[in-house]
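Bumping my old thread because nobody answered last time. Still need a sequence for this structure:
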């Protein structure tokens, strides 16, 4: 005999009785985020940002060689570049963490909802260390310990001092839910001030993420 509440409903009901883990502290929003693939509402092209670069940032940007872009060797670019505004993405919730997958370069991130800040001496990695928390109906994510690299494919620099602040918010509109992602980049080494961008994504419940299938590109040295 089937349960009347369904698998997801029964799980959430049980969690309500025993005290919900961090991932399910806002079950209605979590369910919306998990409902399918989120695709960009930008049609083609690329976002052109006027990043507020310091003199050192401008020097690094001017000296970046496009033929040395790590993505040409199929190396995932890490955050914030991994969050390419045209890349489809999906969300999966575990007990105290969230996995976000991006179709571009097969980037996979883990957001820790019960996490603690890492010591300053902890290793820096391309995606850094991300801690999330619920702020009402919004998911806020702070990322530290990013490895130096590029913020964009044209070489806007990223230092090991960079931090990210992301806000994920689902808005119900007449034509369906829209995910609004507000990203603020702070990098005192390369940016004169924090830089904020806002991108919107529509839900495609029947889509699946495709394998990026990257092939290294060879350039003459």
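Sorry it took so long. Here it is:
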């Amino acid at each position: 005999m089937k349960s009347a509440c369904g698998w997801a409903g029964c799980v959430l009901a049980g969690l309500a009785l025993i005290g919900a883990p961090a991932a399910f502290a806002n079950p209605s929003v979590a369910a919306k985020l998990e409902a399918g693939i989120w695709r960009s509402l930008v049609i083609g092209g690329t976002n052109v940002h006027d990043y507020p670069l310091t003199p050192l940032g401008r020097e690094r940007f001017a000296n970046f060689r496009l033929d040395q872009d790590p993505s040409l060797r199929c190396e995932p670019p890490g955050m914030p570049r991994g969050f390419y505004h045209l890349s489809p993405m999906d969300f999966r919730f575990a007990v105290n963490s969230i996995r976000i997958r991006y179709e571009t370069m097969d980037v996979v991130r883990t957001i820790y909802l019960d996490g603690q800040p890492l010591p300053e001496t902890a290793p820096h990695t391309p995606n850094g260390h991300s801690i999330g928390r619920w702020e009402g109906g919004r998911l806020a994510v702070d990322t530290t310990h990013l490895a130096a690299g590029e913020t964009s494919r044209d070489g806007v620099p990223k230092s090991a001092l960079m931090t990210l602040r992301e806000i994920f918010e689902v808005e119900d509109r007449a034509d369906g839910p829209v995910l609004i992602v507000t990203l603020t980049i702070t990098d005192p080494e390369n940016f004169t001030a924090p830089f904020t961008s806002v991108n919107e994504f529509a839900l495609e419940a029947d889509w699946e993420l495709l394998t990026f299938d990257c092939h290294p590109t060879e350039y003459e040295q």
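Confidence is low (pLDDT under 50) at residues 5-18. Let me know if any region looks off to you.
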